[in-house]
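Hi,

I'm pasting everything inline rather than attaching a file, because the server keeps stripping attachments. The sequence lines come first, and each chain or strand is labelled.
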Amino acid sequence: MKYLTEYRDPELVKQYVDQIHHITTKPWKLMEICGGQTHSLVKNGILDMLPDKITMVHGPGCPVCVTPVSIIDEAVYLAMQPNVIICSFGDMLRVPGSGKSLLEAKAEGADVRILYSPLEAVQLAKQNPGKEVVFFAVGFETTAPANALSIVQAFKSGITNYSILASHVLVPPAMEALLSDEENQIDAFLAAGHVCTIMGMEEYYPIAEKYKTPIVITGFEPVDLLQGILMAIQQLENGTYKVENQYTRYVQREGNRLAKETMEEVFAISDRVWRGIGTIPQSGYEVNEQYKHYNARVKFTLDLPVAEENKECISGSIMKGLKKPFQCPNFGTACKPEHPLGAPMVSSEGACAAYYHYAAVVEQV
Amino acid sequence: MQLSCPMPKFDFDVITLGHGSGGLLTHKLLQSGVFDILKNELLDQQHDGASFTLNGPVAFSSDSYVITPAFFPGGNIGELAINGTVNDLAMCGAVPKYLSLAFIIEEGLTMKEFWEILVSIKEATQKANIKIVTGDTKVVERGKGDKIFINTSGIGLIHPKANIHHNNIEPGDQVIISGNVATHGIAIMSVRKGLEFETTIESDTVNLNHTIEKLLDRFGNDIKFLRDPTRGGVASVLNEVAELTSLGFELDQKNIPVDEQVDGACEMLGLDPLYVANEGLFIAVVKQSIADAFVAALRADENGANAAIIGEATTEHPGKVLMKSRVGGRRVVNYLTGEQLPRIC
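And the predicted assembly:
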């Protein structure tokens, strides 16, 4: 991890913190989009280093957190079918559905496998021709290319016992939904560096322009985050609202062409329900008509009753930046990682989990 | 590992249900395999249990080993089962003496694999200078186990100078780690099915009893507390102690030794080294005045080359473990909840 140490250099961190303190004159509210950024901020104790005038609020960029109960229910339903192997990233297993989580389904005998890549699921389908293998395809623009590629590969290899349960969501429509919300208090965004590595920067220019909001594409290490915050504060203090790129070591303006083409081949843009936020138009990917045989919803004619979200969980307000996890009456009491009311408490990128695991110090000491 | 004992000729290649039936096959397996290789005067009694005399206060400990895969870089389940219980006894301030050894074998385990496990058990007992004095073998149907599970229980004599108890910990006492954290857990994960990644990381499973005995000889009851941070890692041990003592712990991340490859693997998998399982590693809480000498003594020992002071006990934030981050921030180090699951992106 040598290439990372320079982005964790305590001296550089101090320099950026000093600069941020030096230039901040007014109160500003910044939202970091990605849960990975939230965790890095909290885990490294960066929130406590910032001036009191700067409030960081934690955005909806945690794919596990925004997956609605109804899709978890679909995954659990599929897992409980005989002859089905359901594959998922580890994060999704503990997230509660309306009845149970995938982890509980597994304990009851369902064949649930944790995989690191959807391409392994295609292999699994090849090795188990008598079974249906379903990959629970969760994530933002970051995981979508590999999930799309898995379908292309299955198609090319003539594998028909493979499908995906898509729960893909897109960042720019969510940013627009937040900014157009009448309760919106966000002054600037730190956009998710890895999403832009795939998608590029183009989508963000009209948003910055329309809502007069600075957007800084930012990485995940302490120095990345502080540099991103500094760039955003500089813009706010100067009254500008540009799209800037802090994460230049990975992000290019046009993004990754090959990855985008693969997604376009397999997916169609669709409306998507975001847990705690509601339906955001044109904010997700579904498997398109051409590849519908690889869509688990079509293959298993899924039509489950739509379950209600747990009303006690205020994840919507947290992901809109209106509340902090500590402001939830259930935080750390009725809602803990071992018995969560909502996904942000169990996802490794969830804001509530970050505060629960690393930041109790802020309030309690 | 080179097998130092040639495998005797068995008239079966694979262990079957019959080997656990208590009948002739069990007899054959034990007579030509287990008893021979682990031979000692107490085991040779071949009774339902072992009879012996111990003079003085004793520590008694038990642990089950279900590790998957059973063979991993740097060792196998056999030596792990011996070292684990030997180390648990050592952490009580005891000098381990006798162990029981019980196998639960899934039918289908090859004799070659079983023999390899037995040989490493034998070597581990020799290295730790302990004896296996009683045991048991059961075989379960295919699919009802995971190759082999082992339980060991052990008994040891408390070192005359030892007084290990969390109640002895006082504010200002120093927290010392005997080496790099997270190595064992990452070595195991690197060969787990579906997660193979190329690395040269090997498990550091080893017996610590001789190391601990030497430290107790020299530092006696200035060593307040000892624990090997196996499952749940360093974070879980310190949280447990913080809760029991109503003291807090303040750690300094930059002093916590982690091998560079292990750190990289943790980064890639989204795991925190403080929560990853360890073997062959221990945490000591010692009086401040001996901390430097303790670390120096450990560094001179074969099991403590990377030993370091990683934090101290404090009356601030009772029951909580806090850590100064590498970049100078501060955060809570909480209990591990459930299993550490790999992240999405």
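The longest strand of chain B covers residues 94-106.

If the labels don't parse on your end, tell me and I'll reformat.
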